[in-house]
């Protein structure tokens, strides 16, 4: 008896395909709502910490004080890099793009993890914790290396945001800056089956390993249509330079059918709720740090885009105001996407765990549009 396979559905870009189930984040793109495990993102940004948010995403509930303490201690206990990683950071060309450096260094962590190929849920969570805990030291110290500065080791008494900024700048951040980064890490931690998460899931669904999955995801996040957009936003703000140049710049761009970075989203056709929060936050930080002009230009871009394309559901996304926020924190523009990696590892690892718990190989089809029944012409007769 032959089995009749169901007819495949053609769905370019998988825009209308639900590929699996997840209990981590929920998005209502029409209403502009994002929840992690049922809790509104705004409420988490106001009240939670990145470490607590990771616990929520991975364990499906908010921790008790004791649980949070133990979880945080476990993460901090894994901050230190395996010794050979310091030489590897030092061997990366100083002009390398930080996303290339991040992808290479995160991938190399697998070489020093005896559990790299253990697929058990327990080992997978331990690997997730190591990835989460060690990536900030890789990024911050690559930045120090390229600027000719001495390495700074992570401080296990600090939370992830504070430890990262301390390594990066060689001195502890102010509480405001540490909290600003912590909030950004919360807001970027997970977002359903976005492109990088999906890339990671394709990898883990072959029963490859967590390091390979996260490396695939980093390569995918790098693109300017995804995580790379925040860096592109700052380049655009720089290029515009003054508030009275905004209208012409944006309208010319739209006339040329070019994309305005930091706007539009595959799922949100309403205001991205992460951008709602970040907009207020970016303004406050810009005022505090004397970066008002950057904020004013951003705000003006939003107005012009609103008049031109809001009716089509093209509104600011998380990358638009996170760019201004990161700039006000004093972060180098090309570190914006690596910092996104630091946060989104939470989502990637959580989704990989869900996939491993009920795995099915992810393998869509393509519509063949080439010719059939062609003769093979010997090379001398072509
Ligand atoms: N600027 C101008 N026009 C846009 C923009 C934009 N940022 N985004 C979408 N459009 C237009 C398209 O040109 C297209 O117009 P048309 O129908 O006249 O051809 C229409 O809106 C639909 O666009 P699609 O590309 O089909 O929509 P899709 O869902 O595939 O795109 C995407 C989503 C890739 C994010 C898109 O909005 C974009 O390129 N934005 C800019 C890059 C960006 O900010 N990425 C970050 C996203 S958030 C994140 O990944 C963390």
Can you give a write-up of this model?
The chain is built from 16 helices and three strands. It has 382 residues and is an all-alpha fold. Helix 2 runs parallel beside helix 16, helix 8 runs antiparallel to helix 15 and helix 13 runs antiparallel to helix 14. The longest helix is centred in the middle third of the chain and has 26 residues. The protein is globular, with a radius of gyration of 22 Å. The two termini are 44 Å apart. The protein binds acetyl coenzyme *A. The site of acetyl coenzyme *A (ACO) has 18 residues, from helix 15. Acetyl coenzyme *A binds next to helix 15.
Layout of secondary structure:
Layout: E1 25-28, E2 33-36, E3 39-40, H1 41-47, H2 50-59, H3 65-76, H4 84-91, H5 98-108, H6 121-146, H7 160-169, H8 175-187, H9 195-204, H10 210-221, H11 229-240, H12 246-255, H13 273-289, H14 292-309, H15 318-329, H16 336-357
Antiparallel strand pairs: 1-2, 2-3
